[in-house]
Design brief:
Butyryl-CoA Dehydrogenase, subunit A, domain 3, three-stranded antiparallel beta sheet, single chain
């Protein structure tokens, strides 16, 4: 069997990488930190024009009907560029959460999925157990947990309090809202199932971005080692520096397999998909953490300064490492699968 990506998928990845590197530059990221809200409608419009907002939306709702395997490479590129817009969570978490609603909410589902596909609506998703919601200020619809229930709440009906993040590109908000029968779109067993799936998808989304961030930090460190000289030679020529970067490169390559395996499991609805998802989040998070550590060492004292681009991606990696389940939680899930032969998948207890 051929498990490699198709030529079309790889070509699309290359095109998106080129776009993001040209449009989401470190200079632009810094500029957005100074903008009220930290987001750029023009950039979102460009993403929509490329068709990215429609990728995982089913065709019946005006989308492309693609799955996680089609989007996972693009999520990596979003991580590599440090894209601040909520594209990855919208495509990999928010859209499938809406798709999973039953026919009682068919009208609501079609309304919002069609708007997401055409780029006129953005989604924000509340992680069970996490009081902060990312990008709630630019979302037209918030999908929020309340126990086992899923609530769909329009932004006009909530109050928002901004919370600072270690990553200035992340916009986090505490959401004040009142759950009601009118906002509840799933409950009981269906709600638990939807949130369990959303938690897995959120972890998968972060894993892909972490892998991209790891690669970006390695590339920045390698570029720096050719510029910086000691004893008349680039520091990149020294064996100790080569070993540091080689160790990270190995971690990145080893993390690709678990990530793509997890994307396949989620895309095909395989039972027990929580195990490969946790494996992927662990592998990618550890690669990103090692990349940050070694890239700082390679940069020397410069690595800690605000002016160097490294911290833009390092801080994003630190933040995503803790969202949709930290490493302790995912290790516990893998351990349970290996030694107990079972996994707790209920929302609120596993995430």
């Amino acid at each position: 069997m051929d498990f490699s990506f198709s030529s079309d998928q790889l070509l699309f990845q290359d095109n998106i990488r080129s776009f993001l590197l040209n449009e989401v530059t470190p200079e632009r990221l810094r500029e957005l930190w100074l903008v009220d809200g930290g987001r750029c409608d023009a950039l979102w419009a460009q993403l929509v024009e490329l068709g990215l907002s429609a990728m995982t939306v089913p065709e019946i709702h005006g989308g492309m009907g693609m799955d996680e395997l089609d989007f996972i490479l693009l999520a990596q590129e979003c991580g590599y560029a440090g894209l601040p817009e909520p594209l990855v969570e919208t495509m990999l978490v928010g859209v499938p959460l809406l798709v999973g609603l039953d026919e009682r909410h068919a009208a609501l589902k079609h309304h919002w999925l069609a708007r997401v596909a055409e780029g006129t609506a953005r989604l924000a998703i509340g992680e069970p157990g996490n009081p902060l919601v990312s990008d709630a200020h630019v979302a037209d619809l918030l999908l929020l947990p309340y126990g086992d229930e899923v609530h769909a709440v329009e932004r006009a009906a909530v109050g928002l309090t901004h919370n600072a993040s270690v990553d200035p590109s992340r916009q986090l908000f505490q959401v004040e809202w009142a759950p009601s029968a009118a906002t509840c779109v799933a409950e009981g067993e269906q709600g638990r199932r939807l949130w369990a799936a959303a938690c897995n998808r959120g972890a998968l989304a972060n894993a892909a971005q972490l892998l991209g961030l790891a690669k970006r930090m390695v590339d920045l460190a390698v570029d720096y080692t050719f510029e910086r000289k000691q004893f008349g030679k680039p520091v990149g020529s020294f064996q100790a520096v080569k070993h540091l970067m080689a160790n990270v490169a190995v971690q990145i390559e080893f993390a690709k397999g678990p990530l793509y395996r997890a994307a396949y499991a989620v895309a095909h609805g395989q039972p027990g998909q929580a195990v490969p998802v946790s494996h992927a989040k662990l592998a990618c998070a550890e690669a990103a953490a090692l990349a940050a550590k070694h890239a700082i060492q390679v940069h020397g004292a410069m690595g800690y300064t605000w002016e160097v681009d490294l911290h833009l991606f390092m801080k994003r990696a630190w933040a995503l490492d803790k969202v949709w389940g930290d490493r302790g939680l995912h290790k516990a899930r893998v351990r349970a699968a290996l030694f107990d032969g079972q996994l707790a998948i209920g929302a609120g207890t596993t995430f």
